[in-house]
Amino acid sequence: MNQLSTLSDPAAAASHPKAGAAQGAVLLLGSSLTIMGAVMIAPILPKLAAEFVPGNPAAAGLVPLVATGPALAIAIVAPLAGWLADRIGRKALLLLATLVYGLAGAAPALLGGLGSILLARLALGAAEACVMTCCTTLIGDYWQGDMRVRYVNRQVVTIGVVGTLFFVIGGAAGEHSWRYPFYLYLLPLLLVPAIAALLWEPLRERRAAPAAAALSEGPAALSGASLAFLLATGYLLVCIGMVCSFVVPVQMPQLMIEIGEHSSTMIGMASGVGLLATLGGSIAWPWLRERIGRRLVNSLLLAMLAAGLYLLAQAHTVQAILVAVVIHGLGAGLLVPNAILPLMHKLTLSTRGRGLGGFTSALYLGQFVSPLVVLSCSAGFGGLRPAIVAIAAGAAAIALAWLIAALKSRDDA
């Protein structure tokens, strides 16, 4: 009925632009900026340490924060970004954040002190929080139904592909100087004209035609305790999932060195296999969700994360590690789209920014605390391998809880 009224009313049609491939490309590329925050810098951390640590041993603890600091900033700033997206609009915030992202990202190439570099990286993280929140919120605003599912999936796949590409580019750019990869952060400035020209502000549509905008949100919106429970469940799921997901990329190199594999090429290959498995899980997600339902997919992905971590802890050959990484990666690839889609469906236009800002915060909080959880479990259980087994056991227990919920009710609405 909404479509018929739009077709019969030219003014309504003008006030409700139709999102297409151009808008999708801008939002998918914008979403991929978040993965660039860490992957381009990881290869040059040893050179950064060689530059600053010899003359200042206290700086040794700050060098890793150059890579992980943006994740902490995202976790802190994302709820504010969501509030701003609902308050001042998604497009304006996305434009400003993309500009800040490019300038703050490139700033370390010109800075001379590790402290100032770290501050620039924190500013980059704050901009990333706004970019990711706005892009994800706009995907929820512009598309409904099957198209929304497709773009959620495409967002995750694009982030993985761009992450792989810039991991290689960042490593190559850093061969001669640790400063060169930072210049690559200027590339996203090319998105600014496209954001200005191709995107529109959904909140303006609500103010211009509130009845039509409310209809476009659909009848599925929740409120009160039901919405709070949905948000808490989604936030907790993605946070726990990210704690489990980041165990492999952070801890696997140490396990490979323990079994006598010191080749950086082989370690990099194992990381690449894990990333490809993650992409495979993301690509398989729509099919799995359609066949077995969202709750069973949650149980399956947590079980795969648990199985991958357990096998990783037991692995003493490169081949065994690769098997563990593939199983773990397939589960990790299912996590984000399956956790975020219910929130997109249930949040209204006026609350979607805040809801998805909280989701972004929970996601990056999980990434940031993952090494801390491993460190704590290592102290409590007597080493890295027992710590990974303990985390696997926790994931398996939560997988069982989701399985029980799925068996009690297959209604994923």
Automatic annotation (TrEMBL):
The record's keywords, sorted A to Z, are:
Membrane, Transmembrane, Transmembrane helix, Transport
Pfam families from the UniProt entry: MFS_1
- InterPro entries per record: MFS, MFS_dom, MFS_trans_sf, Sugar_transporter_CS
Q: Name one GO cellular component term.
A: plasma membrane
Instruction: Mark the transmembrane ranges.
Output: 25-45, 65-85, 92-111, 117-139, 151-170, 182-200, 221-248, 268-288, 295-313, 319-341, 362-381, 387-407
Please list the GO terms describing molecular function.
transmembrane transporter activity
Query: Where found in the cell?
Result: Endomembrane system
**Residue intervals of the Major facilitator superfamily (MFS) profile domain:** 23-411
Spell out the PROSITE patterns in the cross-references. Answer: MFS (PS50850), SUGAR_TRANSPORT_1 (PS00216)
Q: What top-level branch of life does the organism fall under? A: Bacteria
Tell me the membrane topology, using the record's own terms.
Answer: Multi-pass membrane protein
Put simply, this protein is called MFS-type drug efflux transporter P55
